[in-house]
Specification:
The structure holds two protein chains of two kinds.
Chain A: H1 6-24, H2 27-55, E1 58-61, E2 72-75, H3 77-104, H4 107-129, H5 133-152, H6 158-188, H7 193-199, H8 207-224, H9 233-239, H10 242-267, H11 273-276, H12 279-299, H13 304-325, H14 328-359, H15 370-373, H16 375-389, H17 395-409, H18 413-438, H19 444-447, H20 454-472, H21 478-489
Antiparallel strand pairs in A: 1-2
Helix pairs in contact in A: 1-2, 1-4, 2-3, 2-4, 3-4, 3-10, 3-14, 3-20, 4-5, 4-10, 5-6, 5-10, 6-8, 6-9, 8-10, 9-10, 9-13, 10-13, 10-14, 12-13, 12-18, 13-14, 13-17, 13-18, 14-16, 14-17, 14-20, 14-21, 16-18, 16-20, 17-18, 17-20
Chain B: H1 2-6, H2 8-26, H3 30-52, H4 73-103, H5 108-117
Helix pairs in contact in B: 2-3, 3-4
Classes of the chains: A mainly alpha, B mainly alpha.
Chain lengths: 493, 118
């Protein structure tokens, strides 16, 4: 009985848990509620993946109203996969969040933090699962508004300005998305993504439809921080509370990337339309610049969270590169990298949060020799760093392998070279962290540090182990992503 | 001239859209930026509402007497969008208050200077 309502429960469970946290206020109880709700969401998402694999696309009529009038939740392999990544990353972060939040947020605000966290999760899951274009906007704003609040809760006063700038950029992005949706609605008379996919191909050449595509592309690019629209991201991730950084870095941009997939290949999916526009070239060029420019900026950062935030922009470049290739291995690589990067970056920000917890500083210079006093934390960071640069036997290798394969398939030899070179850039900034942490004499402050508490270290290491595991066994990543990519390209939805 | 008048609502939409976006980009004062953002969002309300209205159309009543009616959907959508807009501006203003408390200024340029010092 419950199995039939899983798509609704996926969103409703965290949505109802959020006000509960707000009413109870008390930190520990709110945390427990968030934990239970997030784990339920994760279990539901796994059940959805299994259901979709067995029965095909699930269409859920919200409130029993049939699709063109009511809102439809539609789950295919692509969004089931993203749902699993988002709720899975959250499920690992939540046990970690308790200690970390206790040290970073005053007692009276802790309940609010979990409320915002759950609302953000609700929004992200909602964007992913919904089959209605306007619903996408509403959920996107739920997740964005709550993430602005989470960022503003950071201890540093720069968190406030970071949050404000993110709010301005994020709202411009969201408004562009609504304009795009509005134009599509005016031309087709429907907001249902499935109906749009049926009706848009016939009028693809019409000027308002092309304008809609342009507005959607720019709006979504702002949300996913595609170079050069990434300027809000580094400070937002750097000054947010550690648990929020980890969650946002792992999930928020990934959901925006999912929207790229949905709009480019489902709504505008007919007969190689994506290839006939200049979009693949534009996105490819921006992705290549994104692989290098923010990577080079990352090398010169003195704040470790900012360093890895810039690295996020670079890694997003790898994902959008896969989209621009618009071939099966390209999309597989992009989808797999959504999962792998979510795991690796969330893990990195969690372990960096461990360092901040003990050291109280985010400056790289203060971390000299920290590899000797916090060996497990640093070892985890090194493994995840290796994953970022795509070392064999880590998850990062798998995604870059598929991207390189996609480039070769289209005879773009130079692109393979650039992908490798992009990894070299990541090697430099990861190398710099390793050098400071291991090859310098620890300062007095660092020498007196203890290893991070287990409740923070274990969740971090779960993601470290996941990085290695998904580098060796890819049935749950590549296995699903390949089928998902095939269904995207054949415009099945 | 007649084409401009025929599509007047769209011209107003475009004017508000570009004007609002310009204020966001060009002004350094954080409150003015939010005002611009609000104008920018308002343009979208108009974009949605205009194609829903039909001259001489009634409210959508299921009756044989009325055949020509306006589409109610955009009104519902825009009600939602207004709520989202209000929440965004409220949150933005709250942030500006907090920024003023901790920095003593809400000018973008001054903030950039203050931030690079610390």
């Amino acid at each position: 009985m419950i199995a039939a309502h899983l798509p609704a429960l996926q969103v409703v469970v965290p949505l109802l848990a959020a006000p509960l946290c707000a009413i109870l206020r008390q930190g520990t109880i709110a945390w427990l509620i968030a934990l239970v709700a997030n784990w339920c969401a994760f279990v539901i998402s796994i059940a959805l993946v299994l259901q979709v694999r067995e029965l095909g696309i699930i269409s859920y009529e919200l409130g029993g109203w049939a699709p063109p009038i009511g809102i439809e939740y539609r789950v295919d392999l692509v969004n089931a996969f993203v749902l699993m990544v988002v709720s899975g990353v959250g499920a690992v972060i939540i046990p970690y969040a308790r200690k970390s939040i206790e040290s970073e947020i005053p007692r009276a605000q802790r309940g609010w933090f979990y409320t915002m966290y759950l609302l953000c999760l609700t929004g992200l899951l909602g964007v992913t699962i919904t089959g209605d274009a306007f619903n996408i906007f509403v959920f996107l704003e739920i997740s964005s508004l709550s993430s602005y609040v989470m960022i503003a809760m950071g201890r540093d006063r720069r968190a406030l300005t970071a949050s404000y700038r993110y709010l301005i950029m994020g709202t411009i992005g969201a408004t562009f998305i609504v304009i795009g949706i509005g134009l599509l609605w005016a031309m087709t008379g429907t907001l249902n993504l499935n109906d749009l996919a049926d009706r848009v191909p016939a009028i693809e050449e019409a000027r308002p439809v092309l304008a809609a595509l342009a507005f959607l592309t720019v709006g979504i690019s702002l949300k996913l921080a595609l170079f050069p629209l990434h300027l809000w991201l580094p400070n937002a991730y750097a000054y947010a509370p550690s648990a929020a950084s980890a969650f946002l870095a792992g999930t928020a941009t990934k959901v925006a990337i999912y929207l790229f997939f949905r709009f480019f290949f489902t709504v505008f999916g007919g007969e190689g339309f994506f290839d006939s526009t200049p979009l693949p070239e534009i996105i490819m060029v921006l992705s290549i610049v994104a692989m290098f420019a923010p990577g080079v900026v990352a090398i010169f950062q003195s704040n470790i969270k900012r360093l890895f935030a810039y690295s996020s922009v670079a890694q997003i470049g790898f994902i959008t590169l896969g989209i621009s290739l618009a071939s099966e291995p390209g999309l597989t690589g992009a989808l797999v990298h959504i999962a792998n990067h979510a795991i690796m970056k969330a893990g990195l920000f969690m372990l960096i949060g461990c360092i901040v917890f003990r050291l109280g500083s985010m400056r790289l210079e203060d971390m000299a020799g920290i590899g000797r006093t916090m060996p497990f934390t640093m070892a985890g960071i090194v493994v995840l760093g290796l994953g970022l640069l795509g070392a064999p036997a880590t998850a990062g290798f798998i995604s870059k392998w598929y991207l390189a394969e996609a480039a070769l398939l289209q005879g773009l030899w130079w692109l393979v070279g650039l992908i490798l070179l992009g990894s070299v850039v990541s090697m430099i900034y990861v190398g710099r962290v390793v050098e400071i942490a291991y090859f310098r004499e620890p300062s007095e402050k660092v020498a007196g540090l203890k290893e991070a508490p287990l409740s923070m270290l274990i969740p971090g290491w779960v993601l470290v182990i996941a990085t290695i595991y998904f580098g060796l066994d890819t049935t749950w990543t590549v296995g699903i992503a390949q089928d998902a990519a095939a269904s995207l390209l054949s415009a099945l939805y | 001239m007649s084409t401009i008048l025929a599509d007047l609502n769209y011209w107003v939409t475009v004017f508000l859209l570009v004007g609002g976006l310009y204020i966001v980009v060009a002004h350094g004062n954080m409150i003015k930026k939010l005002v611009g953002l609000s104008i920018f969002q308002t343009s979208v309300y108009l974009l949605f509402i205009s194609p829903g209205k039909i001259l001489g159309g009634t409210a959508p009543i299921l009756d044989d007497k009325y055949t020509l009616y306006s589409n109610p959907l955009p009104h519902v959508l825009i009600l939602t969008a207004i709520v989202v807009g209000v929440a965004t501006i409220a949150l933005g203003l709250a942030l500006v208050v907090r920024i003023h408390e901790s920095y003593g200024t809400i000018e973008d340029d001054d903030l950039t200077d203050l931030e690079s010092d610390t």
